[in-house]
Amino acid sequence: MLAINTQLTAEQRLSKNITAIMGNPKYVALAGVLMIGKKGIKDDCPTAYTNGRDDYYGRAFVDGLTDSEFRFLILHETYHKLFKHLTTWQHLYKDNAQLANMACDYVINLMITDENRDLFAVMPKDAEGNNIGLLDEKFRNMDTAQVYKILKQEQEESGGGGEGDEESEESEGDEGASGGTGAGGGLDEHDWEGAQDMSEDEQRGLAREIDEAIRQGALTAGKVGSGGNRAIDQLLQPEVNWREVMREFITETCRGTDDSTWRQPSRRHLAMGMLRPSGITERVGELVIPVDTSRSIGQHELTKFLSEIKGVCDTVKPESVRILY
Q1: Which of 17, 170, 281, 314 qualifies as a FRET site for 180, CA 20 to 30 Å off?
Q2: Tell me, what DSSP letter sits at residue 250?
Q3: What is the Cα–Cα distance from 322 to 325, expressed in whole angstroms?
């Protein structure tokens, strides 16, 4: 690749392109995640890497990238953090490091490419014009675990089957990733060991920081009318059915159930010279149920809420119900 933009240092270009990403309307929601952790340029880094919190970029590699390619690389590392790849998929790394790396990259490279049809960020290419990273349409709408399963199955069918490691990804390149584009698959490295070296408190703190950045980013995007970001939107989609959670809580926690206790022997049986436990019943008193009536709620949603409240009353028959609107 040709050395370009030599008028700015790699450090200056890193700051410049992070600022450019934060200023792009489609990435307003990503600003908080971009600012998490340390960032820098390293002379001994072949490409780039992240441990899920900090991200670093190789000086020689960056010097050969255009600004739009550099922005793709920054977004790539940021999305690893956004989706908590280095902690969420540790079990895949322990099973096969090479395929875990590839699966994570396939998922986020498709997302970044889709978001940048305007070429604000483009996949870095080698001297022959081939994509450096991994990109394959067959993995569209899949998560990392699904991609990993397919890659492992393909590897086993081709007779590969062994344990992967970090070095094998660099040497084998895109081998085993049939149908994809990318000469070497070496867009970045994944510092799984660095992520694992973080203490449990550090990992929990990082997860909270990322979650808070996601929520704040979504709020900011909504205020400025940026239209949001698909990656952020996916993470904010509820994964739990609120009806099922409420029903389980009501059924298991609030339902009045008959039980027995030896602490209070049955008086009726005592009179008969028999020691038997007495019966007890925990009954539901007043239930307080708040109902969302914000601007996003219409009559259709209110009807659903009231139907669930009726179901609650039919299930546990509380003494009274207080509804808060």
Answers
A1: 17
A2: I
A3: 10
Q: At what angle do helices 242-249 and 299-316 cross, to 10 degrees?
A: 20
Dihedral sign for Cα atoms in the order 98, 134, 79, 146 = negative
Q: b vs e for 262-301, b when ≥16 Cβ sit within 10 Å of the residue's Cβ?
A: eeeebeeeeeeeeeeeeeeeeebeebebeeeeeeeeeeee
**pLDDT of 184 higher than 50:** no
**Residue 7 banded pLDDT, cuts 50, 70, 90:** confident
Pairing outcome for strands 48-50 and 189-190? parallel
**% of the chain with per-residue pLDDT over 90:** 48
How far apart CA 51 and CA 190 sit, in angstroms, is: 6
- For helices 97-115 and 144-157, give the axis angle rounded to 10 degrees: 130
Segments making up each domain of the chain, as ranges:
10-236, 242-324
Q: Which residue has the higher pLDDT, 133 or 179?
A: 133
- Check if the beta carbon of residue 37 is closer than 8 Å to that of residue 86: no
Secondary-structure percent of the chain, ordered helix, strand, coil, rounded to 5: 55, 15, 35
Place of tokens 């920081």: 209
Taking the C-alpha atoms of residue 165 and residue 190, their distance in angstroms, rounded to an integer, is: 11
What is the C-alpha to C-alpha distance for residues 84 and 200, in angstroms, rounded to an integer? 14
Give me the phi and psi of 280, to 5 degrees please. Answer: -130, 155
Enter the DSSP assignment of 131.
Answer: B
Least trusted range by pLDDT, from 15-29, 182-196, 248-262: 248-262
pTM of the predicted model as reported, rounded to 2 decimal places: 0.65
